Each structure stands twice: as C-alpha cells, then as structure tokens.
Amino acid sequence: MPIMEVQPQCHVRPPRTRANRPEVITSRGRIIGYHEAGKEIRETSRLLGISRDTVRLWVRRYEEEGHVLTRPRPGRPRVTTPAAD
User: Fold this and answer.
1) How confident is the model at residue 68 (pLDDT cuts 50, 70, 90)?
2) What is the CA radius of gyration of the chain?
3) 77 within a domain of the structure (yes/no)
4) Longest dimension (CA), the chain
5) Is there a domain that residue 47 lies in?
6) What is the DSSP letter of 68?
7) Number of domains in the chain
C-alpha cells in the first residue's frame, strides 16, 4: 500500500458565518444530546442558556433531517474556488 503524503495547508480561513463555526455546531450537538437523554425543551434551554425556540428548532430539524448542519443559503454564486481563497 503506497504512503500518501499530506501537504500542510498554508492558510485556513475560519468559517465566514457564525452559524458554521465549530463551537456553534457543538452547541447544537449538546441540544440533541440532552433531547436524546430525555430532557424537556424548557430544561435544555435553561441548562444551555439558549432560547426555547432555538432548542425547538434544532430538535425538530434533527428529527426531520437527521443532522444539525446549517442549510445552504441563497445568494450570489462563488466567483473563486475554495483553493484560490
């Protein structure tokens, strides 16, 4: 089996929106963890310091779509490639 060389990335740009940041995705995972542990929306909201509407949104999306990732948004198409950034 050939050994693959991994090239270090010169520059890694952080996500442009708050919604795609790792800490936000992790927070959504905590919401789902509490939900699967049997916690109510009100209790999850209080424990995490997040509004009940937000907890409800992510629980519903997880149940409907099976993930807590941000949906693609409409807008102008990219002009550059991710490699060029």
Assistant:
1) confident
2) 18
3) no
4) 53
5) yes
6) -
7) 1
The residue whose two tokens read 């909201």 is 45
Which CATH number covers residue 53?
1.10.10
The helix (run of H) or strand (run of E) holding residue 82 is: none
Q: Which residues of 13-49 are buried (b: 16+ CB within 10 A; e: fewer)?
A: eeeeeeeeeeeeeebbeebbebbeeebebeebbeeee
This prediction's pTM: 0.64
Here the contacts of 16-21 (C-beta below 8 Å, separation 24 or greater) are 17/70, 19/70, 20/70
Is residue 45 within 8 A of residue 51, CB to CB? The reply is yes
Give the range of the structural domain holding residue 42, as residue numbers without chain letter.
20-65
Q: Which residue has the tokens 């959504």?
A: 28
**Sole residue written with tokens 């952080």:** 14
> What is the distance between the terminal CA atoms of the chain, rounded to a whole angstrom?
33
